[in-house]
Amino acid sequence: MRFLPALLIGAIGASASYDAVGSLTGQAGGGNHEGPPGGYRVSSTIGELRIDRASMVPEAPPRREIEEQCRDRPIAPTTSVGREIARRGWHVVSEARVGDHLAIAYVRGLLFGTSAMCFAVDGHVALADRGRLIAIVSAARPDPTDGHGPNGEVHPGLIGYVYKVPGSANFRLADGTGAGPASAEIRISPGSIAVGRLAPRDLFCRGRVSIPNIYSLSMVSAARILRREGWRPVNARRGLQECQMVELGFCEFRYRRGSQLLEITAGEEHYVVGYQPRCRA
């Protein structure tokens, strides 16, 4: 079972709203879209992330080499927008679609970190409507270190992956291409695109299973929340299931509620990085 990556963004800053095109886009945005004149209204309530209207992705700065352990993480784009982003010199790492809307995560480079995680250097998410670019989500402030700390250690960027939120029409952001908690959501509605915090619950299995947001919680805290909702650990000892190693540095825990089975992935020190129920046909 593979969960999508990210490190929880710590501080939530003041709300930021942009109706003009930012410096990333290269030319004015807009197009024939529903909503305010000139395109979608875009906003972010997470201080570390910005979103700008856009009609093109700029040419990539000089690529940073993808470290050997991360060379399998970029993908061959399957969409015309993704292929154009790759043609401009970026590495595409994920594509996700909800109806007419497409989200594409792309990076300048990938650094190998702990627990088999690959961290993005200069990551962004492009958003398209019916094949036309409409906005770009980026870090609010560029990282001058290119992903390295003062002693040469690797640290994650803010954006490294995007995927569809289960049971909704939203997209979710993560910071790398290994296991890790989700960090933010992109919500698209008629005339507007908003970047914000995660929803308090996720719907799985065509809406039949509702799971509370337990990202980044310790397994002790997560187990307490799940117990209140009727979930019980499988093969438990002292109320918690023993860790089952699934890949380097990560454990899987299983919980059951009636006939439903919930699988949880936890990272170092048993903090939750992902979860997924097994859906019955």
Describe the structure.
Strand 4 (91-98) and strand 5 form a beta hairpin. The chain has two domains: 16-196, no CATH class; 201-278. It contains two helices and 22 strands. The two termini are 18 Å apart. The model is unreliable at 1-38 (pLDDT under 50). The chain has helices spanning 80-87, 219-228, and strands spanning 16-18, 41-44, 49-53, 91-98, 101-107, 109-112, 118-121, 124-129, 132-139, 161-164, 171-174, 184-189, 192-196, 201-204, 209-212, 232-233, 236-237, 240-241, 244-247, 250-257, 260-266, 272-278. With 281 residues, it is mainly β.
Helices and strands in order, then pairings?
Elements: E1 16-18, E2 41-44, E3 49-53, H1 80-87, E4 91-98, E5 101-107, E6 109-112, E7 118-121, E8 124-129, E9 132-139, E10 161-164, E11 171-174, E12 184-189, E13 192-196, E14 201-204, E15 209-212, H2 219-228, E16 232-233, E17 236-237, E18 240-241, E19 244-247, E20 250-257, E21 260-266, E22 272-278
Parallel strand pairs: 2-13
Antiparallel strand pairs: 1-2, 3-9, 4-5, 5-8, 6-7, 8-9, 10-11, 11-12, 12-13, 14-15, 16-20, 17-18, 19-20, 20-21, 21-22
Comma- or semicolon-separated keywords:
2 domains; disordered N terminus; globular; mainly beta; six-stranded mixed β-sheet; 281 residues; five-stranded antiparallel β-sheet; 2 helices; 6% helix
